[in-house]
């Protein structure tokens, strides 16, 4: 039957049957290579499947596909009946669906697609810097510390440090807190110490605190570059930590073994131990150095004491008054409460019963110790003369209060046996000494106002009691210590002038011995008294008022347990320090100390101008303009040295004119010659004939009456003269 009639021939039917079988075979091949199949088929397995169905016949005839045409595995019939070349691995060509799970094409995710899912985004590794926990900790603690300095809120700061965690970095917090405070005012230094005490045990343990301070010692050299007095400040922080019991005293010993001796850290440890922790009353001194844990100065404490006593007189509430005294936190200063309370009882007679009741209750509760009570009475007894000017009956009232207090049991009976606990008066009944003290206090106050040394010297000479010179020195320094740096500087300058004019070296030594013997009592009113006296001693040595050997003499005359011995030791340390002269001259902010240095330069220049042809009257006027008559011995010394160096005896005419006018006194002239005589050995190294020249100048001076008759005699302050025969 022909195909043109619309019927399939037998051959065509056979061909369609074979094609259907081939399609089933290809479908099974595709499934067998699918990822979801139990496992991929090997090429051997695939060919065996094909062999089961024999060879697919080509469309054009009954020949096998292997004999010619397209291989069966590369042929596919489309729905249109067309045969196309199949892609490898069964993927379709144009107009086909492609192979199952076809991933050959690059898929793109459209973020604007409503069905967009960010989870379908491919993973991408992004490089980032790994942060150091210590760096983060450092940034955090700086902000905590700055905020604390602004708010003074200890609880918030402690809470913030605790919340930071990272306890292994707490030593760094110690280091950062102290280093930041060191470069700030005393207020911040005190706040840092208070915070350390608050954090101790609760937030930061003792080992971490020790490690933090050790880190500070290791970095002391770097700190000293930016903070000039870093050594002293860090030493005070360590001393304060020891006093506050957050650092063990053994820390200094252990740290000294691990810190190089040449480092600033080693110097810090020495300063902490010798200047602070070994000083008399060191606990009170260290705690109050930056204003005290109560953030109050001495003047502020005195004002608070006066206010609470007046409030007590008005209210009569003894318990509240005791609570306020306790809240001040200045147990070592309770003698001030006693003194002011007694004075108030004298001023307001109706308040006396209340005051007696308060003092009795404070003593019974142990709020005011027996020693503080006694000190308060002693201080009032010493000031009765001045108090009597305002309260005429002061002495009578005091004499009635003392036996009452003893009978009530809140004042020790030994007070009656005391005959001057400050060691100042050999005999309190000596009316002449009492009047002398009253008068010299007035003289000293006038000097602090006028700065007139010649007038003060005339006033002392008018008193006519040189045997009391040592008492004057003690009173001068005691009054100066309770004032500003200006008065301290003026006191040192005055000592230098008095030593030349009317005070002997023995007077100076005796005065300092008396001052050191009463140092503990002085410290009750002047908290830093020990350090201040040490500076006065060191300054006296630098100014040639005392010789270094005089310090040994002073120390030997003190009792074995006297705290003044440590003060003398401190003075020696100050003198032995590097650049000691310059530092001690400026220890109270410069003042006249700077003027002394400037005066030396000016004296040298005016002498050079005069030697090169200057006029005597002009040179005398320049010396007068210096305004430092107590320092004219320097003019004499430099003039004699210049005469030796220049071989020009014309300078002696200048000294004659100055002496004739009274510009240079006989004491100043003698002092100048003594200084030259003491340094002749060194001077002879530069000027070989210095000894011969000095003999000539000494003879010249004696003939004209420039020198004291005692100059060169054995036992005098001056060295025996070679030219004296």
From TrEMBL:
<dbReference type="GO" id="GO:0005829">
    <property type="term" value="C:cytosol"/>
</dbReference>
<protein>
    <submittedName>
        <fullName>MA3 domain-containing protein</fullName>
    </submittedName>
</protein>
<keyword id="KW-0810">Translation regulation</keyword>
<dbReference type="InterPro" id="IPR003891">
    <property type="entry name" value="Initiation_fac_eIF4g_MI"/>
</dbReference>
<dbReference type="InterPro" id="IPR016024">
    <property type="entry name" value="ARM-type_fold"/>
</dbReference>
<feature type="region of interest" description="Disordered">
    <location>
        <begin position="18"/>
        <end position="69"/>
    </location>
</feature>
<dbReference type="GO" id="GO:0009646">
    <property type="term" value="P:response to absence of light"/>
</dbReference>
<feature type="region of interest" description="Disordered">
    <location>
        <begin position="106"/>
        <end position="127"/>
    </location>
</feature>
<feature type="domain" description="MI">
    <location>
        <begin position="136"/>
        <end position="257"/>
    </location>
</feature>
<keyword id="KW-0963">Cytoplasm</keyword>
<keyword id="KW-0677">Repeat</keyword>
<comment type="similarity">
    <text>Belongs to the PDCD4 family.</text>
</comment>
<dbReference type="Pfam" id="PF02847">
    <property type="entry name" value="MA3"/>
</dbReference>
<feature type="domain" description="MI">
    <location>
        <begin position="435"/>
        <end position="556"/>
    </location>
</feature>
<dbReference type="GO" id="GO:0090549">
    <property type="term" value="P:response to carbon starvation"/>
</dbReference>
<dbReference type="GO" id="GO:0006417">
    <property type="term" value="P:regulation of translation"/>
</dbReference>
<dbReference type="InterPro" id="IPR039778">
    <property type="entry name" value="PDCD4"/>
</dbReference>
<dbReference type="GO" id="GO:0043022">
    <property type="term" value="F:ribosome binding"/>
</dbReference>
<feature type="compositionally biased region" description="Low complexity">
    <location>
        <begin position="27"/>
        <end position="36"/>
    </location>
</feature>
<feature type="domain" description="MI">
    <location>
        <begin position="300"/>
        <end position="421"/>
    </location>
</feature>
<feature type="domain" description="MI">
    <location>
        <begin position="598"/>
        <end position="717"/>
    </location>
</feature>
<keyword id="KW-0539">Nucleus</keyword>
């Amino acid at each position: 039957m022909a195909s043109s009639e619309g019927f399939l021939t037998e051959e065509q039917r056979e061909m369609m049957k074979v094609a259907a079988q081939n399609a089933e075979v290809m479908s099974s091949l595709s499934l067998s290579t699918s990822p979801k199949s139990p496992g991929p088929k090997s090429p051997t397995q695939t060919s065996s499947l094909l062999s089961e169905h024999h060879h697919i016949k080509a469309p054009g005839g009954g020949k096998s596909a292997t004999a010619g045409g397209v291989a069966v595995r590369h042929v596919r019939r489309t729905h249109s009946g067309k045969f196309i070349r199949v892609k490898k691995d069964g993927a379709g060509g144009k107009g086909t669906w492609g192979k199952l799970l076809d991933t050959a094409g690059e898929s793109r995710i459209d973020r604007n697609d409503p069905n967009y899912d960010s989870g379908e985004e491919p993973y991408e590794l992004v490089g980032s810097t790994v942060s150091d926990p210590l760096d983060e900790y450092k940034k955090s603690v700086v902000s905590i510390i700055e905020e604390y300095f602004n708010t003074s809120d200890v609880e918030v700061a402690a809470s913030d440090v605790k919340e930071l965690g990272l306890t292994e970095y707490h030593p760094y917090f110690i280091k950062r807190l102290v280093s930041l405070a060191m470069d700030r005012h005393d207020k911040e230094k005190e706040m840092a110490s208070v915070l350390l005490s608050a954090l101790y045990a609760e937030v930061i343990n003792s080992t971490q605190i020790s490690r933090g301070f050790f880190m500070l010692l290791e970095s002391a050299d770097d700190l000293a570059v930016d903070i000039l007095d870093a050594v002293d400040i860090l030493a005070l922080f360590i001393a304060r930590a020891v006093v506050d019991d957050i650092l063990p005293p053994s820390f200094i010993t252990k740290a000294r073994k691990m810190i190089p001796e040449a480092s600033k850290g080693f110097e810090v440890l020495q300063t902490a131990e010798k200047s602070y922790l070994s000083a008399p009353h060191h606990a009170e001194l260290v705690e109050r150095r930056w204003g005290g844990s109560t953030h109050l100065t001495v003047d502020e404490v005195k004002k608070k004491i006066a206010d609470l006593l007046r409030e007590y007189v008005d209210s009569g509430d003894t318990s509240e008054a005791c609570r306020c005294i306790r809240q001040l936190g200045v147990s070592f200063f309770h003698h001030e409460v006693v003194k002011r309370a007694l004075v108030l009882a004298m001023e307001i007679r109706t308040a006396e019963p209340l005051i007696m009741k308060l003092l009795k209750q404070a003593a019974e509760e142990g709020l005011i110790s027996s020693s503080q009570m006694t000190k308060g009475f002693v201080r009032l007894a010493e000031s009765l003369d001045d108090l009597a000017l305002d309260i005429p009956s002061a002495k009578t009232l005091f004499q009635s209060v003392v036996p009452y207090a003893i009978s009530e049991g809140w004042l020790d009976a030994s007070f009656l046996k005391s005959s001057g606990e400050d060691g100042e008066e050999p005999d309190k009944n000596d009316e002449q000494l009492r009047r002398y003290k009253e008068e010299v206090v007035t003289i000293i106050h006038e000097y602090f106002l006028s700065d007139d040394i010649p007038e003060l010297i005339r006033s002392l000479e008018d008193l006519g009691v040189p045997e009391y010179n040592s008492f004057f020195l003690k009173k001068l320094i005691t009054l100066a210590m309770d004032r500003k740096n200006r008065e301290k500087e003026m006191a040192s300058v005055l000592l230098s002038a008095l030593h030349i004019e009317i005070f002997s070296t023995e007077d100076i030594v005796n005065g300092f011995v008396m001052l050191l013997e009463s140092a503990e009592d002085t410290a009750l009113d002047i908290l830093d008294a020990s350090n201040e006296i040490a500076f006065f001693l060191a300054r006296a040595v630098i100014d040639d008022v005392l010789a270094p050997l005089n310090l040994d003499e002073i120390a030997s005359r003190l009792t074995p347990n006297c705290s003044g011995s440590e003060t003398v030791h401190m003075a020696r340390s100050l003198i032995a320090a590097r650049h000691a002269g310059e530092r001690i001259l400026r220890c109270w902010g410069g003042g006249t100390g700077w003027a002394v240095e400037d005066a030396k330069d000016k004296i040298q220049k005016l002498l050079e101008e005069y030697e090169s042809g200057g006029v005597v009257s002009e040179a005398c006027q320049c010396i007068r303009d210096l305004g430092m008559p107590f320092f004219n011995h320097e003019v004499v010394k430099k003039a004699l040295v210049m005469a030796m160096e220049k071989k020009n005896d014309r300078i002696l005419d200048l000294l004659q004119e100055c002496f004739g006018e009274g510009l240079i006194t006989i004491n100043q002239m003698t002092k100048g010659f003594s200084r030259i005589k003491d340094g002749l050995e060194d001077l002879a190294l530069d000027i070989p004939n210095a000894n011969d020249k000095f003999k000539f100048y000494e003879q010249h001076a004696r003939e004209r009456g420039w020198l004291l008759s005692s100059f060169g005699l054995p036992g005098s302050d001056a060295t025996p003269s070679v030219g004296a025969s």
